[in-house]
Amino acid sequence: MQTGCWEHYLSTGELIWSDNLFRIFGDEPGAIEPNLEYVLAATHSDDRARVEAAVAALGESGETQVFEHRLTRPDGQTRYVRTTLTVQERRDDGLHRLLGILQDITDSRRAEREIGAHVAVEEALADWQDLDDRAPRLMARLAASGSWPR
User: Residue 103: CB partners within 8 Å, gap ≥ 6?
Assistant: First the structure.
């Protein structure tokens, strides 16, 4: 599991990424100037509102936020990530520095889907009688496991 980290200075807008964070996003270290717009553009469109809500919640409550979402790399590859956001420094005028850790959990997600598919097949075959009777049940279980082709 790859892990990258970042820090964001709110007063200046400076965003600093670790080399691994660049790699998770599909870039070479230093290849782009990290910024919030780039992160949101790389965030899967179905997940963008959840990411924005977590950032807003951090700003309002100051409580650490942990959430999962998808990133789309420049080559079109989708990665599943778990993000942890926290406030590192406050000043009189509010939040000053935020820290984040981003873990690429794509391989874990794939393994979970494969295990789910194996369990679905095993359960369907355990009491298999004929194709008409069990095939729809097997297909439903495969779909529920997330392993059914899209």
Answer: 1, 2, 3, 81, 82, 83
Instruction: Tell me how far apart the alpha carbons of residues 54 and 77 are, in angstroms, rounded to a whole number.
Output: 24
Supply angle C-alpha 51, 54, 57, rounded to 5: 150
In a domain? residue 150: no
CA terminus-to-terminus distance, the chain: 25
CA dist., res. 144 & res. 116, Å (int): 8
38 belongs to a structural domain: yes
- Domain of 122 in residue numbering reads as 109-145
Interval 48-101: pLDDT, tens: 999 999 888 887 888 899 999 999 999 999 999 999 998 877 777 777 788 999
Predicted TM-score (pTM) of the model is 0.71
